[in-house]
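Table S2 (continued). Query chain:
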Amino acid sequence: MKILFRQPEAMDRTTIPRLRTTTGAAAGFTLIEIAVVLFLMALMALLIIPSTNGFHVSRLKHEARRLAGRVSFLYDQAAAAKMVLRLTFNIDTQSYSVSRLDPHSLSPTFLPDLEAGAAPVMLPPDVHLRDVTVEGKGTVTRGTAICTFYPEGYVDATVIHLIDTAGTVFTLSFQPLTGRVSITRGDLTPKAAQISS
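Corresponding output:
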């Protein structure tokens, strides 16, 4: 197989400046191209930043719904099994757990609930229990607060404030006679929370 090489043709003076101009112009970006790229980057940043705030709020909402689901379950379980259950909020460790009164013990005491789905819950680092108010016991901002579920189908009227790192607050309110939990975005006083739910 033969490869044929062609001799370059002689260039005249009119082609040389044109070659230099073409290779010199392709070396950089124009001001318009840079402006368009910066505009697109700024537009993308505007779309992304609000969604990160939404992530914190959705995490807070998820934890509020998770707690509300646990409360509804405990209310139904206490009434169906005719037992006394406690939901203990530990504000110092940012957790809550379930315990049950052992009715068969000689001296009845509350023991940790070992049933499936009753494991202690640790709140994520960006969601905090700010305070817990239990009717007749007051508001607790440190230590533990206890909400009791009774076999007659009653729960202590309780108001809980969950807050995230951005300062968004959700108020959870337990209805004593129905076990219904209302979740409200905002910082409601315990009295206002009980009235609104």
